[in-house]
Amino acid sequence: MIEVIKPGFQTTIQDLHGRKGYWGVGIPPSGAIDNRSFGLANACLGNHENATGLEMTISGAHLKFGKDTCIAITGAETDVTLAGKKIERYKAIKVKKGDLLKIGNVKNTGMRIYLAVKGGLNVKKYLGSTATFVSGNFGGMHGRALKAGDRLMSDAYKGTAAELPGMENISVDFFSNDWKLKAMVGPHASPDYFTEEMVNVFFSETWRVHYQSNRLGFRLLGAKAEFARTTGGDGGSHPSNLHDYVYTIGSINFTGNMPIILGPDGPSLGGFVCLATVISSELWKLGQLRPNDTIVFQKVSHKQALESCYNSKGCDLI
Q: Do 201 and 288 share a domain, yes or no?
């Protein structure tokens, strides 16, 4: 048993793949938004890649362990202590019964911290996944973020941390305050929806992450949108308006003049144009965007997107 002493901010139960197969009826996949860091945490422990763990935003949790186990912590840089002693991240760590784990606030870069436990957390699945969808009030721990006093269950582990897969040489310099995101143009670009100049500006502008951003979407501040039409016609009065159109995770959706990168808890359908789409292998970066970080979008072709996906093993499409 693992007791939540202090939950931190927006600490939720997640898995890697999320809730597949329900996008068409408006249920997003959820799951770890930085799937790279989440997957590395499980890899440190030799877990199945989809084993259930914790995602923490901005500030980490304080957890008391009721039995021996092993853990791994990845994601944004933070100070971590176990039984009063500082421990390393991106490494399998042995935990003894009664130990108190304290995970601090994120430091200069990144936004989210991940915790994996040997064997994964024992959480009941909802629609095929343990992932928490807070806006829908389902999955995880009663469809909500963790609270003080919550108790989590995991499998006991009687081995030692030294017996687990070695991750000693892994590079953890993933994070920045100035990001580059590879994206493909479309589905709504020039000449029908945006001017050709606006498409060029979009890929040359330095965008800034708005403070009103979360797992549903990341608002961006930057150049004013220039549309190729004066109204949305039958879709509405603003040129960004459409009749409902399908979205995907990573769609860069112009709600009026403001672009929003749609996240894994975002909508699957809406009435606004999407100038570009972040490619699958780059989606993990969304989980580490923080307010005032900058983004430059790099335009790639379909072929380049597939190559990037293959090289990073990041093709997990809905």
A: yes
Residues 11 and 139 in one domain: yes
> Encoding tokens for residue 117?
């436990």
Residue 61 and residue 158 in one domain = yes
Helices (H), the chain: 35-45, 196-204, 302-312
User: Are 182 and 278 within 8 A, CB to CB?
Assistant: yes
Tokens of 85: 């002693």
pLDDT in tens, the chain (318 residues): 899 999 999 999 999 999 999 998 999 999 999 999 999 999 999 999 999 999 999 999 999 999 999 999 999 999 999 999 999 999 999 999 999 999 999 999 999 999 999 999 999 999 999 999 999 999 999 999 999 999 999 876 667 677 777 665 565 667 999 999 999 999 998 899 999 999 999 999 999 999 999 999 999 999 999 999 998 888 888 999 998 889 999 999 999 899 999 999 999 999 999 999 999 999 999 999 999 999 999 999 999 888 887 776 554 443
